Amino acid sequence: MSTHTVPSLTVPEAFSRWLESRGLIYQLLVDFLGRKPSLSLVAQWSRNRQMSVAAEMTEGGRELKRYLSQEPNKLPMICEKESKEYKRLMQEQSVSSFKLREAAILGRSEDFCNVLADVYTSAGIVFNKCNGEADDHIAIELEFMAVMHERMLYNSFSIRSAMELLDIQESFLEKHLLQWTPQFCQKLNAATDSPLYLGLSHMLEEFLPLDLQMLRSWRASLESSAATSI
Q: Does the keyword Cytoplasm apply (predicted)?
C-alpha cells in the first residue's frame, strides 16, 4: 500500500503513522478472516515491510508479526496448519458458539442485512463477494472500512470531503463493528489456540477502539485547522 497522503490536507505527525498503517491493518484482517490462508497469502504478509510499523500499534499485531516472520521453509507448515483451522472455524461450523456475522452475534433477524446493504449503497460501494458472504459478515464489514480509508486518503480534495468520510467511518464503527466484535473476539479466543487466529482476534479487539479514538482526534484537528484558516 502506498503511504502518500492527500496533498491538500495537512496531516500532523501525530496522525501520519496511524493513517499509513490503518489501511494495511484492515486489509490484513480482511485477508485472513475472509478466506483460507493460502501459501501465497502467508508469504505475502510474512514479507510485508510495512507490517513492522503497523504491528507496533497493538499487541495482537506484534503477535502476528512474530508468528508470520519465520524462515521461508517454515511457511508451508504454517499454511497447512492454519488452513485446517480456518476450515474448522469458518466452514465446518463445528464450533457452535462461534459466528462470523453481526446479526448472529447480536441475535438479530436476517432482514438486518438490509441495513448494511443500505449503508454500502449510500457510500457507493458494491462488493465482489466471491464466496457469497452476507453483508454483515466480519470480512465484508472490515473491507468497508478499508475502502473508506482509501477514499479518505486518496480521493479527498478538501477538509469538507474528508470530514464527510470521517463521519461515515465513525458511524460505522460505533453502530456496527464495535457493537459486536468484542463478543466475536471473545468467542474466537475461546474457540482456538491458533497463533494466527488468536493474533488476529487480539489485533481486532485492540485496534477498533483505537481507530475510533484516532478518527475523532483527527476530526478535531481538521476542525481546528478549518477554524484558523477562516
A: no
